[in-house]
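task queued by scheduler; priority normal; single chain, no ligands, no partner chains; default sampling; output format set to structure tokens
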Amino acid sequence: MVKRELSGDAPTVRPAEGEADGAAVVSSAEIRPDRPLRLRPGNAQWIGARTEQQDAFAFDGCAVAGANPAGTVLVVLADGMGGLQAGREASRIAVSTFRASVAAQPAAVPVTDALDVALRAANQAVHELALTTAGEGEIGTTLVAAAVRESRLHWVSVGDSRLYLYSAANRSLTRCTEDHNFARELQEQVNAGELAADAVTDHPDRDALTSFLGLAEIPLVDFSRRPLTLQPGDRLLLCSDGVDGVLTLDELATPLAGDPQVAADALIAALRARRLAYQDNATVAVLACDSGVTPLPAAEPLLPPRRRSWTPVIAVTIAFVVAAVSLAWLGLAWWPDRAGSIQTADTAPPPVVKGDAVSPPSDASVPAAAIDPSPESSGDAGRGDGVPPQMPEQAPDQMPDQIEPQNGPRVPEQDAPRPVTPPVAVTPEPT
């Protein structure tokens, strides 16, 4: 496996200047202990004009602050080779194997060594897939990975998937990785004077990869020779060639200064707006490096102490007193009526005197002799037409001086007593 190191003298690429030929390394000041980083992810993906999504990506450890020596934040992205078979499976196997290998290594292992071991493991997994399916060289994928430990950036890549660094200090966008494709080799021949400049853009195989995962040995590997120190406001952008192969550097850099998820969505939206008939799979993974110190909220102006208002207390007290008086008045108004409706032996009304006869009180029982149980008298007893009941004929010596009225409803005290019709005397005929 051949490794190609990056040159520390490569120029920094700014959006207004276009893209440099070689990968760039940006120098930055050492991390200050009072400025730890808080890393936040954002991502977006689009299938484009393809029939399946062959890109894969993952984040690991983003909940760990970048200043934590024991934690490593990992972002990995792979682009399955669409011209070969099983590109979808190759990219997913590469990402999952790479993540598992990094997680299994002790924290004492240098980050660069951990990335190298993980890359070899991922290549072996994809190579085994090729041997058991289509054969060696018929299955492959690119891979780019960025790892942040103690606020320092490390990376490794194979193929043409790229890592960019956006610097908040000078608002510049730097391509950190080097492409492994035939266009790169053609450009070297142009630089040597062996080919004309237009030979690179017109060559039909300019996008063919010269290194990828899935072979017995990886021909070319791009990795960071020394880590880059990240500062608050910096952004990392990992993307497949379906993104940076379409958008310009200005379009890539413009949304990166904001929220990472908003930036990722904006980049995919810019691709959709192009409506290209040949649009490749597009994947964007953004890692925002923000200050880990939470700013204190602005102090509110001091206001003079407010005087306590007694209005609510007085209002509640008045309402309580009014309610109590109302309940007491209702109780006094209700009690005489209630007391007058209860009759005892001492308060029972006196007997009513009607002429010479004395009738019992309305609640007294009628003697059994005064009730006629005969069927003939029962028909008139219930009539309410005002006709007095017909009394049966009796002998003169058996006729009472007065007929006692039957029990009826109690006569109210304010009404005059109903007059009683005197009985008609019957004179017996002489014999």
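post-processing summary
- DSSP finds nine helices and 14 strands in the chain.
- The mean pLDDT is 74.
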